[in-house]
Each structure stands twice: as structure tokens, then as C-alpha cells.
Specification:
The complex is a heterodimer. Chain A is built from 12 helices and 8 strands. By secondary structure, chain A is an alpha/beta fold. The radius of gyration of chain A is 22 Å and the shape is elongated. Chain B is of the alpha/beta class. Chain B is built from 11 helices and 8 strands. In chain B, strands 3-2-4-1-5-6-7-8 form an 8-stranded mixed β-sheet, sandwiched between helices. In chain B, helix 10 links the parallel strand 6 and strand 7. Chain B is elongated, with a radius of gyration of 21 Å. The chains are: A alpha/beta, B alpha/beta. The interface between A and B is large, with 50 and 47 residues. The complex binds guanosine-5'-triphosphate (2 copies) and magnesium ion (MG) (2 copies). One magnesium ion binds next to helix 5 of chain B.
């Protein structure tokens, strides 16, 4: 799977080799292969199409640099374009509140609870904060226990109210609790929900409205397929979230969903999850992600070979 | 159903105002299939077959496209004998019948086990569960909640204990209780982690000390919203544990379940169950005729 793109580009670029200039005709095959590779990486169909169209526009005509082989030029164009798409500055978490309130959101099993623990640990050890974890998932079996175990693992207090089925009131009480106990960050874990589940989407909208978080984060599994755009859009429509967390990047997925999400909601990807342990968190580097999606390590070596 | 109706809606839109299947319709069809996570390979296969028919029959009307697509998709599903069953069945060939559930993180293994236990119990089977996910925070408590809900016994040890030892205990206990079916939960693991994949092989080996031909079924759970990585998951888990059946979960979402088509096309493993919600009744036996119907209704 990982060799897919470099192989494909190699094949496609072969067509271009020996031609002096990029033309509508000789670029067609390459573009098809690039698009196919993006689809294999789970980039959304429409976005992959737009992307290759932009690449084509840049490639044809006046942009041709005669000093470069067409193959090299194509690689460079694709790489630059993708980096730009993934780009923007590295964005951290806004920690200006007192306490700073952070709300987690996302589909079932995406990694919200685990990431809540990781973030608490990160803020505690790296930013010298005193976080409070809040258990607002009142549905999933043992969700509250899970957050308590995570809290113990990272040495952070956990607020829960087992008799209470109302996430809004739990979250509000938790913030009050944080104020009286000197916590300067409050991380609210919520239940997983589907974007099409109106009642559950309304619930998180209510939580959001009640606690006015400084940071609302959308947690998404890096292995997500074509539907990533719809899900991200639906959550963004309701929460206008501040950033995206991409989890399970320790797998071998290319993670094309990252491009799709970035394109459709234009919110920064702030952190990535790279394992199940509490230390497996990293800030997001757009260029690295672009490299990963395109297998750029391989592509760069292609340029050198060309 | 809302998840699948969009496929048909999109298809209708693609052919609206057209009398015959032309390149534009085929392009739209490609988009619809890829956007349903069918996968590029299987999509191209379907498109090629339809192209061949267009070439052969010279003229192919858009109203025939539905019929043909349906045939093609059902055809792909048939090749793996997927979806012949209509009810939850526990084979009586072995007692206890041992089922091991595997998959990457967060796909719905534990939930599927709870739902399955419920179905088997409804049929009067004696079910025992084994909590061999000893790693994830509160994984044991989660399965305990399900065991209590369904009212079946759970064999467990402390968090952090050896999963193989839990599986061993579960099978021994099931033998003693004369149970009909045993379901072993395992920790989620990404298929590219060699150590964790080897651990699964060990769990299997240790179970065989109690029941020599166990596990009788290795159920790989796939998240229905997963993209192309699902194929790699199927491949690697099959390599490590000889997966014998699949469950595809979270099909109550907007994911169109196209991954079922792609997986059935690329692997010789039948899809047995689909998850359509978080509730105890939200598991269905996968039936290819119903599935194809729901895709086109
Ligand atoms: N390999 C890997 N596993 C992860 C990562 N993040 C989370 N997980 C695992 O993914 C599974 C689901 O994580 P949870 O944190 O329970 O997900 P959630 O979003 O809270 O799930 P729900 O509350 O059920 O919606 C668990 O097995 C986690 O250990 C990651 O970055 N890498
Ligand atoms: N909507 C929906 N949610 C589901 C379905 N199946 C499972 N879930 C949810 O997905 C999340 C993860 O389910 P689990 O059963 O914990 O998944 P798992 O594979 O055991 O996870 P790990 O043990 O952490 O690897 C939970 O929130 C479940 O309620 C389904 O069919 N539909
Ligand atoms: Mg959770
Ligand atoms: Mg589990």
C-alpha cells in the first residue's frame, strides 16, 4: 500500500520522460495516476478532482520551466500544491481562559477519551497546567470508568457524576468545581455520535452553548474513508470547531482524510495521535502529512533519479 | 434506509434526463461508487463490466443500468458466499463453539460481542464471554456491563494480565459449564504492529490446549466508515489469525457500506454481520439480497 503512489507516479512519469514540454495530452496519464493515488489514500473524490485540475493548470503552458525535466516539474507541482493545501502555521491550543474550557467531539471510537487523557498529560507536563478531565459520556458502557482509569494513568483529576444523565449539567458543575479547586484547564469528554443522529448532535450543541468552550476539537480517525468530508462538515456546522485531531496515525493508513477535512472546513489540524499510550501525541506538521499522503519520501527520491 | 438511499438518489440524479449510458454517466457512476468507499479496484471492475456490456449491446438505456448494476454487485457478493444466512446461527458442530473477535482499535468489537451474545442467548444457547482485552482502560468493565445486560457469565482477570491466560480460563470454564458458545474479546490492535499480531496467534494456540480445534470462527470487525485501509486490515488479520468471517459496523452512519462490496470482491471471507447502532438489538445478519435491495431502494 505504501509503495502505491511512487510506483504509480513512476509509471506515469515514464510517459512524460523524453518529452520537452508538458502538454494537455502528455500530462493526462500522469494526472489520472495522481488522482487515482489520492483516491487510494482516501482523499475525497471531488477534492482529488479539484486538486488534479489545479495541478494541471499549473503544469500546462507558461509555468513550464525549461530547466527542469517535465517529470521533475510535475513532482514539484504536486508536492507544492499539496503542502499548500495542508498548510498554514502550526497552531497550538488557546490557553487564555481561566479556566480554559476544551470540548471534545467526534464519531464513535475515534479516540476522544484516549486523546482527552493525552492532552491532559501534555498540558500538565509540557505547559505546567492543572487540568480537570470531565466525564460527559453518559451512554457508552463504562465510559466513565475508562476516563477515570486514564485520569489515574496521567495523574489528573476526573470529574464525574454517575447519577446524572444530563451532559449539560455535568459540564457546568464541572467548570464550577474546577474554579473552586484551582484547575486552570477543563477537558470535557463527550459520547461518540454520528453526524446523522439529530438528537445527539443537538445534545452536543447544547453542551457547547452552555459552556462556551475556548477550544472545541473534532477528533477523527485517520483511517476514515470518503465520508470524512460529510462528517467534518456536519460537526463544523453545529459546533464551528477550532481544530481537528487526527488519531491512529501509528497505523499504515495514508490518511488522505486529512486533506479532505482541511479542504472542506478549513480548520487547522492541531494534534495527531500515534499510539494507545498517553505519551503518543504529537503536534501536527502539514508538510509531514503531505509527505505521508503522497509517499513523498519516495517521490523525492524519484526526483533525484530523474 | 437513510444510509443507503443516497446511493440510489445519486444514481437517479446521474441518469436524469439521459436516455442512454454514455461516458458521462459512467464517470458519474465511478464517482458514486468511489464515494461509497467501494474502492478504486472494485469500482473499475464494475465500470469495465458495464462498459463491456455497452460495447456488446451497442445501446444501453439508463433504466437498464439499475438492473445491471444490481446484478453486478450481487455477483461480486456471491463470489464469496457472503450473506446466505438469514438468522443468527451457532453451529452445533463443536461444543463449545469458540468465536474469537479481532480488529483494529475502536471498530466495535466489544459492542458486537454484547449484541451477538444477546442473539445467541435468545436462541436458548448457553453463552460464556471472555475478557481478553486486558489492555485498554476499562475494557473489562465495558464487557462486564454487556454481560450483565445480556445476563451471561463473563470470565475475567485483572487489567494488565495475560490475554492468553484469560482465554484459557474462559474455555476451561465454558467446558465445565457445558456451554454452547464462547466469545473471546480481544484488545484493538493496528495490523502493522507485529508484536500485537503475534499475541493473537498466542491466544489462539493457548486456547487449543483446552479445545483442540478452537477457535472455530475468527470474526474480524471492520468499521463501516473506514476507507481503503480496511483492505489492509483484512489482509493482515487474515495472515495472522486466519479470519473466517467479517462484521461491518456503524452502518447506521452516512457511510454507504460500499466497503462491504469492495471487501467481498477482494477477499474470500464472508460478511456475516452488520452493526447498525449502539443498542443491544442493533446487529443484523448480513443478507446480500437485502443489502443489494437497500442499496437500490
Ligand atoms: N493505535 C492507536 N490507537 C488509538 C489512538 N487513539 C485512540 N486509540 C484507541 O482507539 C480505541 C478507541 O479510543 P477511545 O478513546 O475509546 O475512543 P472514543 O472516541 O472515546 O470512543 P467512544 O467514546 O466510544 O465514542 C481505543 O482502543 C484506543 O486505545 C491512536 O492514536 N493510536
Ligand atoms: N453508531 C454505531 N456505533 C457503534 C456500532 N458498534 C459500535 N459502536 C460504538 O463504537 C464505539 C466503539 O465500540 P467498541 O465496541 O468499544 O469498540 P472496540 O472495537 O471494542 O474498541 P477497542 O476495544 O477500544 O479497540 C462505542 O461508542 C460503540 O457504542 C454501530 O454499529 N453503530
Ligand atoms: Mg469515549
Ligand atoms: Mg473493545
Amino acid at each position: 500500500m505504501f509503495d502505491n503512489l511512487s510506483e504509480k507516479l513512476d509509471k506515469a512519469l515514464h510517459v512524460l520522460k523524453g518529452h520537452g514540454q508538458i502538454t494537455e495530452i502528455n500530462v493526462a496519464e500522469t494526472l489520472k495516476e495522481i488522482r487515482r493515488a489520492l483516491l487510494d489514500a482516501d482523499v475525497n473524490f471531488k477534492i482529488a478532482k479539484e486538486f488534479t485540475n489545479r495541478v494541471k493548470e499549473k503544469a500546462i503552458g507558461e509555468n513550464v520551466l525549461t530547466t527542469l525535466q517535465p517529470g521533475q516539474l510535475m513532482v514539484k507541482i504536486v508536492k507544492d500544491e499539496l503542502t499548500e493545501l495542508m498548510g498554514g502555521d502550526v497552531t497550538g491550543i488557546n490557553l487564555n481562559g481561566n479556566p480554559t474550557v476544551i470540548l471534545m467531539s467526534g464519531l464513535q471510537g475515534s479516540g476522544k477519551t484516549t486523546f482527552s487523557g493525552k492532552l491532559a498529560n501534555y498540558l500538565k507536563t509540557k505547559k505546567n497546567k492543572k487540568p480537570l478531565l470531565v466525564a460527559c459520556d453518559v451512554y457508552r458502557p463504562a465510559a466513565i470508568d475508562q476516563l477515570h482509569v486514564v485520569g489515574v494513568q496521567v495523574g489528573v483529576d476526573v470529574y464525574s457524576d454517575r447519577g446524572n444523565n444530563d451532559p449539560v449539567s455535568i459540564a457546568k458543575s464541572a467548570i464550577a468545581h474546577a474554579k473552586t479547586n484551582g484547575h486552570n484547564v477543563v477537558i470535557v469528554d463527550t459520547a461518540g455520535r454520528l453526524a446523522v443522529d439529530e438528537q445527539m448532535m443537538k445534545e452536543i450543541a447544547n453542551v457547547h452553548k452552555a459552556i462556551q468552550p475556548h477550544e472545541t476539537l473534532f477528533v477523527v480517525d485517520a483511517m476514515t474513508g470518503q465520508d470524512a468530508v460529510n462528517t467534518a462538515k456536519a460537526f463544523n456546522d453545529i459546533l464551528n470547531f477550532d481544530g481537528v485531531i487526527l488519531t491512529k496515525l501509528d497505523g499504515d493508513t495514508r490518511g488522505g482524510a486529512a486533506i479532505s477535512i482541511k479542504s472542506v472546513v478549513n480548520k487547522p489540524i492541531k494534534f495527531i495521535g500515534t499510539g494507545e499510550k498517553m505519551e503518543a501525541i504529537d503536534v501536527f506538521y502539514p508538510s509531514r502529512m503531505a509527505d505521508r499522503i503522497l509517499g513523498m519520501g519516495d517521490v523525492v527520491s524519484l526526483v533525484e533519479r530523474a | 434506509e437513510k444510509s443507503n438511499s443516497s446511493f440510489f438518489t445519486k444514481l437517479s440524479k446521474a441518469v436524469a434526463g439521459k436516455s442512454k449510458v454514455d461516458d458521462e454517466v459512467l464517470d458519474d457512476l465511478e464517482e458514486i461508487l468511489v464515494s461509497s468507499d467501494v474502492g478504486v479496484n472494485t469500482t473499475l471492475k464494475i465500470i469495465e463490466r458495464i462498459e463491456a456490456r455497452v460495447a456488446r449491446d451497442k445501446y444501453l438505456g439508463t433504466d437498464e443500468l439499475n438492473v445491471i448494476l444490481r446484478e453486478e454487485i450481487a455477483g461480486l457478493l456471491s463470489e464469496t458466499n457472503t450473506g446466505e444466512d438469514t438468522e443468527f446461527v451457532v453451529p452445533t458442530s463443536s461444543k463449545p463453539y469458540v468465536l474469537m473477535v479481532v480488529g483494529v482499535n475502536g471498530v466495535g468489537k466489544t459492542t458486537t460481542i454484547g449484541k451477538l451474545a444477546h442473539q445467541f442467548k435468545k436462541q436458548g444457547k448457553k453463552v460464556v464471554l471472555g475478557a481478553a482485552d486486558t489492555f485498554r482502560a476499562a475494557a473489562i468493565d465495558q464487557l462486564q456491563v454487556w454481560a450483565d445486560r445480556v445476563d451471561v457469565p463473563l470470565v475475567k482477570q485483572q487489567m494488565g494480565s495475560d490475554p492468553a491466560s484469560v482465554a484459557f480460563d474462559t474455555l476451561s470454564s465454558a467446558m465445565n459449564q457445558d456451554a454452547d458458545v464462547v466469545i473471546i474479546d480481544t484488545a484493538g490492535r493496528l495490523h502493522n504492529k507485529v508484536n500485537l499480531m503475534n499475541e493473537l496467534s498466542k491466544v489462539k494456540r493457548v486456547m487449543q490446549k483446552v479445545v483442540p480445534d478452537a477457535p472455530h470462527d475468527v470474526l474480524l470487525v471492520l468499521d463501516g466508515s473506514t476507507g481503503q485501509n480496511a483492505f489492509e486490515q483484512a489482509k493482515q488479520f487474515t495472515k495472522a489469525t486466519e479470519v473466517t468471517s467479517l462484521a461491518v459496523t456503524k452502518l447506521d452512519g452516512t457511510a454507504k457500506g460500499g466497503v462491504v462490496i469492495g471487501i467481498s470482491d477482494q477477499f474470500q471471507i464472508p460478511v456475516k454481520y452488520i452493526g447498525v447502532g449502539e443498542g443491544i438489538e442493533h446487529l443484523q445478519v448480513f443478507n446480500k439480497y437485502e443489502f443489494v435491495d437497500s442499496f437500490f431502494k
